[in-house]
Amino acid sequence: MLISWVPEAATVRQKMLYASTKATLKLEFGSGHIKEELNCTAKDETTLQGYQRHKVEFSSPAPLTSREEELAEIRKSEVKTDFGIDTKQQTLGGINCPISESAAVALNDMRRRAYNYLQFRIDLEEEK
Q: Which of 25, 32, 33, 115 has its Cα between 20 and 30 A from that of 92?
């Protein structure tokens, strides 16, 4: 699970930096290992109680209009043909954001299952 917090009062530039750093982290860590994401704008949302509140609030799907239900059925029945020999997919996203040596070591340790939780901080002044 990846829980990210971006202060609501952050400037657009800071929010973009947070987003690109998060994209780099997911790319380095491997997004296939992330089963769930929680994007928070208040610090209390990053706690266990905040996560449980999120699960309760978003446990049921949003109601759909009849038109949205029809479109969903059409999408299910459509044949997916966007992957072929000539198809190009983006493999790297965001900007290159340096990760400290200790963060890289911690990510490698987590891959080896030494940890089940890591917390990172973005230095907005240094942009890393």
A: 115
